[in-house]
Amino acid sequence: MLTFWRYGYETSSISDLTAAMGITAPSLYTAFGDKKQLFLEAMRLYAGSPYDMEQALSDAPTAREAAEQMMVAAVEAFTGELTPRGCLLASATASGSEASAEVQREVAQVRHQIQQRIKERIDRDVTAGLLPDNTDSEGLSGLAIAVIQGLSVLARDGADRSHLMAIARAATNAWPTPVPSTRDL
């Protein structure tokens, strides 16, 4: 996973991957089939369990706090001492040829699924009156994903953790707030 994260999908050679894993090329092919399948497995490991993500989104008091927790976790991962800077999903497929088009589609699908889960949580908050009825859940969930991916790029550019945290806070502060009911006035 770290090799793909550091060098990207296309530029990670089989010899780089087998050296990182301490195995031979035939063992890699036996275990994973090919480089693409190894990358997809690494991506699933990186993205984590969909159940855990759904649970974290559900357990947060609000969608805004869930998105903020995701951004904070992203910043911590993107600036970790033991990991490459930035996001595996963004950096591993940032450039590519037709050969990596399928991998790029798989990565895009993971991002789409994450955005969909955030959107569903936002919709739940709208229904519960925690966000205004006119909240654009599609746009707001897209904003969360765009900010996370932007934080990744900035981390790769060398931005420090405190700067990235400030951006994450600014992004979540831009979220709509519920309109107080007349009984609250």
TrEMBL record:
Q: Where is the HTH tetR-type domain?
A: 4-42
Q: Which UniProt keywords apply?
A: DNA-binding, Transcription, Transcription regulation
List, alphabetically, the InterPro entries matched: DNA-bd_HTH_TetR-type_CS, Homeodomain-like_sf, HTH_TetR, Tet_transcr_reg_TetR-rel_C_sf, TetR_C
On whether Transcription regulation is a keyword of this UniProt record, the answer is: yes
Enumerate the spans annotated as Tetracyclin repressor-like C-terminal domain: 71-169
Q: What is this protein called?
A: TetR/AcrR family transcriptional regulator
Organism of origin: Devosia rhizoryzae
Which taxonomic lineage is given here? Answer: Bacteria, Pseudomonadati, Pseudomonadota, Alphaproteobacteria, Hyphomicrobiales
